[in-house]
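Entry for the shared binder. Reason: the reviewer on the internal report wants the predicted structure included alongside the sequence.
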Amino acid sequence: MPKTPVSFAPRSTEIRKSGAVVGITDRVYPINGNSVTFDDVLVKGDLSGDLEYNGRKLRVVRVDTVIGLEIGGQGPRGPVWKHVECQVVE
């Protein structure tokens, strides 16, 4: 039997806080264990405190790089955080 609740909702790249989208990841990341590291997060709001990502509660622990404006294959976008390490909050 699974120890965590099973969700059949489609996985999303959105990070939410109080229901509002505050970040978008570059792809859908599986959360196994007590932490997850996102390679790329497009910041849309306040990423402090408890966050929601695909039914799990997370808290940002560390950010390696903060880029104000990134110009890539998807065009200009920003701000972007790189290598965002998050801890799962029980």
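Summary line for the report: The longest strand covers residues 56-67.
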